[in-house]
Amino acid sequence: MTVQAEQYRPAKAPAGQAVLEVRGLSVEYATGGVPVRACTDISFTLRRGEILGVAGESGSGKSTLITALTRLQRPPAVTTAGEILFHGRDGSAPVDLVTLDGRRMRRYRWTALSIVLQSAMDALNPVMRIGAQFADVLRARDRSLSKRDAWARAAELLALVGISADRVRDHPHQLSGGMRQRAAIALALACGPELVVMDEPTTAVDVVMQRQILAQVLRLRSELGFAVVFVTHDLSLLLELADRIAIMYAGRIVEVGEAAALYSAPKHPYTQGLRDSFPPLHAPLRTLHGIPGTPPDLRRPPPGCPFHPRCAQRMTGCEERLPALLPVGPKAGHEAACLLNDTDTDTDAKTDTDSGETKGGIL
Amino acid sequence: MSTVLRDQAPEADTPEYVLEARDVSKHFTVRGPLGGTTVVRAVEDATVRLRPGQILALVGESGSGKTTLARMLARFHEPTRGEIVLRGERVSGNRRAQRAYHSEVQLIFQDPFGSLNPLHRVRYNLDRALCLHQPHLTAKGRETRIAELLERVSLTPAADYTTKFPHELSGGQRQRVVIARALAVEPKVLLGDEPISMLDVSIRLEMLNLLKGLRTEDGLALLYITHDIASARYLCDEIAVMYAGQMVESGPKEDVIASPQHPYTKLLIESSPDPERGVGDRDKLFAGADELGEPPSLIDPPTGCRFHPRCPFAMPECAVEAPPRTELGGGHWAKCWLHAKGRAGELAGTTHAAATVARREKLQGAS
Predict the structure, then answer these.
(1) Containing H/E element for A144?
(2) Strand A252-258 vs strand A335-336: parallel, antiparallel, or unpaired?
């Protein structure tokens, strides 16, 4: 009964319109001899106003993914396959960000998509006043804006993130680390983007400041309605923040689903291990073991499922077959790439058909 | 305040504690761009005591003085006031005493990438510590000891690791080598300054389990410095909380986490991610959390209780006089005026965010 009800709900609710559709995205680092595949066959859909969390360890490809999404990647990183379809709010036909040339891409920066980087100190210009940096961005998008109005707008934007207007004349070094990060978020929102990509924006700040920043992101999201891709290594944080979470391992999404479903019923052993790597704050303590071993070297990825050398629930076939990302569990949109969930043992599943299934299944 | 602490000091003279910092303060003099000098009061009147086989977690925001305190305990900084006491004896400053001190107390840094010599193999990195602190060992003896140490930190087979350079190891393996090097001198106390925060999430627990093993099997005392309260709870016996250079609360971990008796401890615990408190109810979870304030400057710290500008429970006396230490039984104490004024019950009934909102509304209503 409950299962039926849960399945019914997403269909009944007005399905959020997609703002970003990523299809089979692969990114390689063309270094020397063998190219290193940092992202392989990534597909997901981001709905308008949704917060998608991307969690993974270092080397899982999460940073590569967001530099590819925002077209900020530099050689030797090359997008070798796939498309990133961006649906503008005006309802026009989606554009593929991968194929846009630099000049056309610039039209989308700040106004359609923007990014918040991990270190605000490096993202802000140290020799420009905060207000001038806002004015730069604002006036580049709207040439009719006067300098005075741009500075006034900068003060308004800083007020959005709880920074008093008199700090607009400060240089970045005069702000605390938390304030700088909040200023960077305000800057990313300056031109009303539809999508904000955040790369570990709270890793360099304390827990109290982290909470403030997350609360502000949530508040601004409900006021302004932008969608967020939030990348972090801290799954415990994402479980509280994100609507949906994608878990990355060795350059692939191994599980994606609603935050609550992912926490209560993870379907991939890596997600389980990651979830159990965070000691509880209040629940009874027991000895935890994390995940033994280390992430694979992407220059020499293991055959089959990339997680199998570390997996406690490994079975025959894991070292040969690469599991596809398939729907699992009672919740719609919950998908995992693990043979454990393979009920009808579809042995002729090859990578080509896999990606086809993924495309169909993710919507 | 310091008199209250000093009253406690004599009982600590029993060698029950292996390492103590008694009322230590550290002030740094910073030269400004115009030649003027300012004093940064990084740590003020902090007391830390470590029993053998005990793990004490020191938690607080960055800039709260945790690292400075650890560096004083490691004798990298000489305290401006107060004293460091090893096994009931005051530590003196000369070089020979320093060497003897470091064979008992070792510091593990946050960054395993920066604390191993990148030009030398693992064997050399460990051998240096043995040469300096265990001069009686022969070359052969050192070689066996290196193998033992690597096995102690689960880098087996040891022969695979001795010939590796630090860059050939993963972050977790490197931190294990750092711990093995600290163990090479057979210390009684390990000071871990955020030893796991640069490691990947999935391998942090292995490191915590290793540190736990060193305590139970080798009887080491450990000071675990962190801003992650959940990992502190997993590893330690007691928690001490620092704010703006001062200790504000300390006690057995479950007491402190389940019922924090200082508003700052409460804020810290409520700010820590805890998926179990209800995924999904996000608006409630983050309500009021977008204005929690920031720690003060330590050049010109607030008068009285240093937390009072951020505290939703602050009273007039909080801004005037530093609160006394209140013993709450079972080794749990806090420095907060709420206890002296009989208002401590208010802490349990609300959250920091809710109390801040309520206070703001009350102030607006009054004006």
Answers:
(1) none
(2) antiparallel
CA distance A257 to A255: 7
Q: Which of B198, B273, B269 is nearest to A242 (CA)?
A: B273
DSSP secondary structure string for all residues of B99-114 = HHHHTTEEEE-S-TTT
CA closest to B213 among chain A residues: A287
Which residue is it, tokens 């629930």? A313
pLDDT at residue B28, rounded to an integer: 92
DSSP string, B121-165: -HHHHHHHHHHHH-TT--HHHHHHHHHHHHHHTT--SHHHHHT--
Show residues of chain B in contact with A216, CB under 8 Å: 290
Distance CA A142, CA A125 (A): 21
Cβ–Cβ of A294/B172 closer than 8 Å? yes
Kindly tell me if the per-residue pLDDT of A356 is higher than 60.
Answer: no
Q: Which domains does chain B have, with CATH numbers?
A: 2-104+187-366 (3.40.50.300), 116-186 (no CATH)
Query: Residue B279: its pLDDT value, please?
Result: 55
Beta carbons within 10 angstroms of residue B258's beta carbon: 12
Average pLDDT, stretch A161-176? 91
CA proximity to A110, closest of A202, A191, A210? A191
Give, to the nearest 10 degrees, the angle between helix B171-184 and helix B122-133: 20
Output the pLDDT for position B7: 42
- Residue of B170, B211, B227, B286 to mutate when probing chain A, most A C-beta within 10 A: B286
Å between B275 CA and nearest CA of chain A: 6
Tens of pLDDT, residue by residue over A285-296, are 888 888 888 888
Average pLDDT of every residue of chain A: 85
Q: What is the pLDDT of residues B327-342, one digit of tens each?
A: 998 999 999 999 998 8
Distance CA A208, CA B267 (A): 7
Residues of B in contact with A6 (CB under 8 A): none
pLDDT at A343: 63
Q: Is the ipTM of this complex over 0.90?
A: no
Enumerate the residues of chain B whose CB falls inside 8 A of the CB of residue A235: 201
Mutate one of A164, A249, A278 to test the B interface: name it (highest B CB count within 10 A).
A278
Shortest distance between the Cα of B254 and any Cα of chain A, in A, equals 9
Contacts of A218 in chain B (CB under 8 A): 282-283, 286
Confidence of residue B292 (pLDDT cuts 50, 70, 90): confident
Choice between B294 and B45, residue whose per-residue pLDDT is larger: B45
* Least Cα separation, residue B202 to chain A (angstroms): 5
Q: Choose the closest CB to B61 out of A208, A214, A219.
A: A208
Q: Chain A contacts of B274, Cβ < 8 Å?
A: 236, 240, 280-282
Q: Which of A240, A241, A279 sits opposite B230 (nearest CB)?
A: A279
pLDDT score at A53 = 96
Rounded to an integer, the average pLDDT of A26-48 is 89
CA distance A292 to A311: 8
Indicate if the pLDDT at residue A352 is higher than 80. Answer: no
Rounded Cα–Cα distance for residues A31 and B140 (Å): 43
